[in-house]
Amino acid sequence: MTKKLQTILYLEDDPAISELVLLALAARDDLELVHVATGPDAIARFPEVKPDLMLFDVMVPDLDGIDAARTIKEQHKDHLAPVIFMTAKTQAKMQIESMGALGIIAKPFDILVLADQIEEMYAAGIAEQSGARVEA
């Protein structure tokens, strides 16, 4: 069975970084990126979007990305979406690892390889979780 990455719920409050990520992923015609700027928005949009992957910044106002992901996982056990965190804070690494994240993308990131990096983390994580063959 093959699971292709099609939909990403993206949490980022910084407009400049959001624009870079949107540009980096725009070339992937078959990939839908749904952007939200706050943790509560991510939680609210999750059931509607039903993403294949959550790409969350750690440091966002109101409710950080780690707590937003934790809340989503607790509230939506019927649709488990893996998460990749983006952060400039190395202190958050242990907390992120305890969440079972597929990976961490350090800021600043390389816009030229970001899309491939996300797809590789997704494919490796899904293959590990299911034992299935995965298309990136």
UniProtKB/TrEMBL annotation:
Start and end of every Response regulatory domain? 7-122
Question: Would the keyword Nucleotide-binding be found if you checked this record's keyword annotation?
Answer: no
Record keywords: Phosphoprotein
Q: Which residues carry this modification: 4-aspartylphosphate?
A: 57
What InterPro entries is this protein classified in? Bact_response_regulator, CheY-like_superfamily, Sig_transdc_resp-reg_receiver
GO BP terms, alphabetized: phosphorelay signal transduction system
Do the record's keywords include Protein biosynthesis?
Answer: no
Q: What is this protein called?
A: Response regulator
Q: Which Gene3D superfamilies match?
A: 3.40.50.2300
